[in-house]
Design goal:
By secondary structure, this protein is α/β, with parallel strands linked by helices. The protein has helices at residues 45-64, 67-83, 85-96, 100-120, 159-171, 184-197, 212-221, 234-244, 269-281, 301-314, 333-348, 378-381, 397-405, 420-429; strands at 13-15, 18-20, 25-29, 36-41, 127-129, 137-144, 147-151, 174-178, 204-206, 227-231, 250-254, 259-263, 291-297, 352-355, 368-371, 388-394, 409-410, 412-416, 434-437, 452-453, 456-457, 470-477. Helix 14 (420-429) links the parallel strand 18 and strand 19 (434-437). Helix 2 (67-83) crosses helix 6 (184-197), helix 4 (100-120) packs parallel to helix 5 (159-171) and helix 7 packs across helix 8 (234-244). The structure holds adenosine-5'-diphosphate. Residues 151-154, 180-181, 212-213, 216, 232-233, 236, 239-240 line the site of adenosine-5'-diphosphate.
Length: 480
């Protein structure tokens, strides 16, 4: 498919309901072939300010719209996404690289957040609390915070936006997002569908550009932005959170992870291997919830490694548009080089290369497995963001808990066991926002997604998801 033939191909920023071009453009490439896909408008800081003003102007009437009406518009947006799922998925695969089946999965998953929050829009409930004295009433009401600014990454070009936008719009906020420069087309296609759904001008704005620092500054420092939500690296998240302090805005940070994947000696090994494939190789290992460290009980390590190795050798790396591809390229050759540096250093430090590792250039990194990995290696402490399994062993539960928690991150974690007592004890010991127990794929709209420690704060999805976009007002009524 040539993306230019699609109705959803919109290579300009979407501001105040209009497609806004710029004097300059930037190239978006096909990640499997390197070919040019599009020249997209390179927005300036003035464009970003214009988008914030559009969102500010649209706020009062959007917030005042009865919840069922907002819900209906979100529902329509969801339905259009589902109707255009194949087209959205193709665009996503072309600009991001993941296999088409995975891209379709992301569209369904991303749309799921819009469906979920279309329903939650009606449940921005308040409270009535028994008063402390006669003649008084205590009422608690919830209100949209205002304009929301967001910055999103390239690994889920669709879903990382819908998770934020749907919650913001459901709560009655208006929204401005700067998608990653690598993958702006999916974001712009979403905006086109929002417009078609009848979501009013200015309620959702997408600003595409290469000067992420300058564009980000408007979102983090403008007094007209009430809340800032970021998904990306911990390094950048810290900078942006600091910038938000000057206006004391609300902040949500969904940052990096370093997920442990623990397999106990009582685990169902086949289930653990299947879960490991999902938790490690989805999106070629480029997700913040990817298993980064495999901790396998010493008595089952050989068995687990042998079965996982067999599965890994079945993976078919290639162009995501080819139907037999099960693993695509990394986002850039630079990303592959970084992964390779970690692998090479680990081997030099004594790890054993069992599969893959043969990379010289380009952005396709072969699925790789290392055993004999030790906790002091960089590949253990850093987020790999690539298709590399690192296997360490442990001998008892206490050691597994110490190893699992030995990271500054606290996003996802996984473990496999058939013992119900151990399941509760070990989950209690894990310092992570999310725990997959006998599950390798845990994210869905009904569940609260988010981390602790340096993985950030705030929750996306679930009944908790509106909290970050609303404030509570306590009303003390006297003289009754
Ligand atoms: P990733 O490794 O996923 O690229 P980043 O944190 O570098 O993680 O990028 C995530 C998002 O943050 C992207 O949209 C990127 O353009 C944006 N970004 C990166 N650096 C900055 C910055 N200094 N200010 C604002 N946005 C930034």
């Amino acid at each position: 498919m040539q993306p230019t033939t699609s109705d959803l191909f919109k290579p300009a920023s979407f501001i105040g309901g209009e497609w806004i071009t710029s004097n300059t453009t930037f190239a978006v490439t096909n990640k499997a072939t390197g070919e040019l896909l599009a020249d997209v408008a390179d927005a300036s800081q003035a464009h970003m300010t214009q988008a914030v003003q559009a969102a500010k102007s649209a706020f009062a009437s959007w917030a005042a719209l009865p919840a069922p009406n907002r819900a209906q518009l979100l529902r329509k947006w969801y339905e259009l996404m589902i109707a255009k799922r194949d087209e959205l998925a193709e665009l996503l695969t072309l600009e991001q690289g993941k296999p088409l089946a995975e891209a379709k999965g992301e569209i369904t998953y991303g749309a799921g957040y819009i469906e979920w929050f279309a329903e939650e829009a009606r449940r921005l409930d308040g409270d009535i609390i028994p008063a402390n004295s006669t003649g008084q009433r205590i009422h608690v009401t919830r209100h949209p915070v205002g304009v929301v600014g967001a910055i999103t990454p390239w690994n889920f070009p669709n879903a990382m936006i819908t998770r934020k936008a749907a919650a913001a719009l459901a709560a009655g906020c208006t929204f401005v997002v700067k998608p990653a420069r690598e993958t702006p087309l999916s974001a712009l296609a979403l905006a086109a569908l929002a417009k078609e759904a009848g979501i009013p001008a200015g309620v959702i704005n997408v600003v595409t550009g290469t000067d992420s620092k300058a564009l980000g500054k408007v979102l983090t420092e403008s007094p007209d932005v009430a809340k800032f939500s970021f998904t990306g690296s911990t390094r950048v998240g810290k900078l942006l959170a600091a910038d938000c302090t000057s206006t004391m805005k609300r902040v949500s940070m969904e940052l990096g992870g370093n997920a442990p994947f623990v397999v106990f000696d009582d685990a169902d090994i086949d289930a653990a291997v299947n879960g490991a494939m999902l938790a490690k190789f989805r999106n070629a290992g480029q997700t913040c919830v990817c298993a980064n460290r495999f901790l396998i009980h010493q008595d089952v390590e050989e068995q687990f490694t042998a079965r996982l190795t067999a599965k890994i050798t079945e993976l078919k790396m290639g162009n995501g548009m080819d139907s037999d591809t099960t693993i695509g390229p990394l986002i850039t050759p630079n990303a592959a080089e970084n992964v390779h540096k970690l692998v090479t250093a680990a081997i030099e430090q004594g790890a054993l290369l069992r599969v893959g590792g043969n990379w010289t250039a380009g952005n396709f990194y072969p699925p790789t497995l290392l055993t004999g990995v030790s906790p002091d290696m960089d590949i253990v402490s850093e987020e790999i963001f690539g298709p590399v399994v690192t296997i360490m062993t442990f001998s008892d539960d206490a050691e597994a808990a110490v190893l699992a928690n030995a990271t500054e991150y606290g996003l996802a974690s996984y473990f496999y066991s058939q013992n119900i007592g151990r399941i509760h004890r070990f989950a209690d010991a894990l310092q992570f926002g999310m725990v997959g127990i006998n599950e390798g794929a845990i994210s869905n709209p009904a569940a609260p997604f988010g981390g602790v420690k340096e993985s950030g704060y705030g929750r996306e999805g679930s009944k908790y998801g509106l909290d970050d976009y609303s404030f509570i007002q306590y009303r003390c009524l006297g003289g009754i």
